[in-house]
Amino acid sequence: MRILLVEDEKTLADTLRRGLANEGFVVDVTHDGVSGLWAATENPYDVVLLDLMLPLKNGYDVLREMRSRSIWTPVMMLTAKDGEYDQTDAFDLGADDYLTKPFSFLVLVARIRALIRRGAPERPVILSLGSLSLDPVARTVRRGAEPITLTPREYGLLQYLMRRHDQVVSKAEILDNVWDPDFDGRDNVVEVYIGYLRRKIDSPFGVQTLSTVRGMGYRLTAD
Question: What domains are defined for the chain?
């Protein structure tokens, strides 16, 4: 079994390489995002272990470009960052697992073996709802063939609503999942951004897919 380890901490990388070699894995090591992306693109691997904070190109960008090139090798993110939004971003981009440093080597090996057993099925990453589509890898939104430009907050809101399509979601749920945990402003900010979103994904196209359910919240449906 062949593994690519992309890790800029050279002492840690060498320790992991030797440990994994003792477990019977063949391990290639690179120390920056550009080299890691090149290796992942040019060689077949069973698993890629990808650090988040890398020189030249960070782990998010490496993963995004891998998936945009239809490279479906299972990817486990290795990072010192443990925020839930970091994990959510990684999974949205197509990560298969996420391990926070420091971690148990035995747990790492067990998770690698689980990823190998699961394999790398080709999977669609584009979210579609009627004529509306959102590509988490390219971070693009389209209504049919027409591109729609969104701010990062509008994009996050749309992505959440598309994942919960046809369901009524409350302001509180939207704040919990789209805004930062320490946000202490008024919940009418949700109404404001719902209005922004409607003017971009509905009004120019003569459709009404983002509706308000009075007293309950909002619902996104297909046109």
Answer: 2-118 (3.40.50.2300), 127-220 (1.10.10.10)
Contact 175, 187 (CB under 8 A): yes
Beta strands in the chain (DSSP E): 2-6, 26-30, 47-51, 75-79, 97-100, 127-129, 132-135, 140-143, 146-148, 210-213, 217-220
Q: Where are the beta strands (DSSP E) in 101-175?
A: 127-129, 132-135, 140-143, 146-148
Q: For 193-201, what is the mean pLDDT?
A: 94
Q: How many CA atoms lie within 13 A of 102 on its CB side?
A: 2
- Of 80-94, 100-114, 126-140, 147-161, the poorest mean pLDDT is in 80-94
CA distance 166 to 182: 28
Q: Per-residue pLDDT tens for 44-75?
A: 888 999 998 899 998 888 988 887 777 888 99
pTM of whole model > 0.85?
A: no
What are the angstrom distances between the C-alpha of 217 and each of 166, 174, 214? 12, 9, 7
DSSP-assigned letter for residue 169:
B
Consecutive H or E run containing 33: helix 33-42
pLDDT exceeds 80 at position 109:
yes
